[in-house]
Design a protein that fits this description.
about 350 residues; alpha/beta; Rossmann fold; UDP-galactose 4-epimerase, domain 1; seven-stranded parallel sheet; two-stranded parallel ribbon; binds NADPH dihydro-nicotinamide-adenine-dinucleotide phosphate; binds guanosine-5'-diphosphate-rhamnose; EC 4.2.1.47; lyase; GDP-mannose 4,6-dehydratase activity; NADP+ binding; NAD(P)-bd_dom_sf
Length: about 350
């Protein structure tokens, strides 16, 4: 019998970690994830996959660790003996990285270095080849140099988070070239889903739309509405991570839809889905502005499309709809038909049930 492929994921409790785990389990992998000890549970996104490890045939295992703790990373590597490692763990909020720059750089930048060093020693000692994926970001492009942004566009990072990602990107290339490691950088543009963290702009908007429609919220406070992002669907993007590690040779790839929209357009479409006018609800609050902003992101993923056979499956309109629908459903509101928009009158019953009328 051939042994199952074993993958290790840092950041397994995050949006991408949860989708990637599902995907790898479907592919027959044994999946190991690193989680952080917290005083309240942080495993909501993966609870549906988790089973008692004492049971026969279990293929998802969790280990306590942290990217700021190199000793534990080494110990987990020895224990798990993975053939693929996906480094998704990060303090991933750009605005927060201005408040907490040292910690952000420690987890995102030095954390990647710790993991690469652990892999280098592990490979040298055991002779086992490990394939490594680094979760790079379109934030690395920062101040616009040229559009659309491709693998050859220069970086100009605009936040502690983005600076740390650039460092991790170049360390990954450096380890590939210095130690012949199979190490790939994905340069992923924004990708969203109903599992997106609640303080990122798309999810903040779709949750507010559902709550406003249900009469549970009156206003939505936002920052800069002019910035443009290339938004895709997270499930499509984790497939690209895996595809990179299945190639004969390691390389770096941009993953993006090639379309860009302003935050304002996202608002228009999300509120429009429930037939509300966003301007009646949205207020400005400067605490959501960043000291330096990234104005325009639009990715050119030709290389990934040609060499990995990757394509996005969800349009901007489809993404907004599926996120609003999921947040409405979470409040017990279901759309009368899957494609149509909802009228405010459709929410009357729900409002009544919630005691909001
Ligand atoms: P999330 O913020 O949803 O998840 C981040 C994960 O990292 C969580 O599991 C979190 O654990 C974990 N984590 C945080 N700090 C540490 C640490 N010190 N040590 C170990 N783990 C830690 O991010 P996404 O899933 O959206 O993104 C995944 C990766 O891809 C990140 O590296 C992000 O920077 C990058 N990226 C994301 C893009 C996007 O649009 N989503 C685009 C491009 C890159 P906990 O649950 O305990 O907080
Ligand atoms: P981003 O995502 O910074 O692109 O990083 P985010 O959703 O936080 O912001 C997108 C844009 O919206 C503007 N904005 C607001 N943002 C938030 N969070 N809250 C607000 O109230 C608000 N109002 C306006 C922002 O200024 C920004 O221009 C995400 C993260 O997932 C990173 O980890 C990842 O690397 C990049 O995407 C690609």
């Amino acid at each position: 019998m051939t042994q199952r492929k074993r993958a290790l994921i840092t950041g397994i409790t995050g949006q991408d970690g949860s989708y990637l785990s599902e995907f790898l389990l479907e592919q027959g992998y044994e999946v190991h994830g690193i989680i952080r000890r917290t005083s309240t549970f942080n495993t909501d996104r993966i609870d549906h996959m988790y089973e008692d490890p004492h049971k026969e045939g279990v293929r998802l295992f969790l280990h306590y660790g942290d990217l700021t703790d190199g000793t534990t990373l080494r110990r987990i590597l020895e224990e798990v003996q993975p053939v693929e490692i996906y480094n998704l763990g990060a303090q991933s909020h750009v605005r927060v990285s201005f408040d907490s720059p040292e910690y952000t750089v420690d987890s995102v930048g030095v954390g990647t270095l710790r993991l690469l060093e652990a892999i280098r020693d592990y490979q040298q000692r055991t002779g086992i080849q490990v394939r490594f994926y680094q979760a790079g970001s379109s934030e690395m492009y920062g101040l616009v140099q040229a559009v659309p942004q491709s693998e050859s566009t220069p970086f100009y990072p605009r936040s502690p988070y983005a600076c740390a990602k650039v460092y991790a990107h170049w360390q990954t290339i450096n380890y590939r070239e210095s130690y012949n490691m199979f190490a790939c950088n994905g340069i992923l543009f924004n990708h969203e889903s109903p599992r997106r963290g609640e303080t990122f702009v798309t999810r903040k908007i779709t949750m507010a739309v559902a709550r406003i429609a249900a009469g549970k919220q009156k206003k939505l406070y936002m920052g800069n509405l002019d910035s443009k992002r290339d938004w895709g669907y997270a499930k499509d993007y984790v497939r690209a991570m895996w595809l990179m590690l299945q190639k004969d040779a390691p390389d770096d790839y941009v993953i993006a839809t090639g379309e860009t929209h302003t935050v304002r357009e996202f608002l228009e479409r999300a509120f429009g889905y429930v037939n509300l006018n966003w301007e009646d609800y949205v207020e400005f609050d400067q605490r959501y502005l960043r000291p330096a902003e990234v104005d325009l992101l639009i990715g050119d993923s030709t290389k990934a499309r040609q060499q990995l056979g990757w394509e996005p499956s969800v349009t901007f309109e489809g993404l907004v709809q599926l996120m609003v629908q999921a947040d409405l459903q979470a409040l017990g509101i279901t759309s009368p038909n899957a494609t149509g928009t909802l009228k405010p009158s459709d929410f009357a019953t729900v409002r009544q049930e919630l005691g909001a009328l």
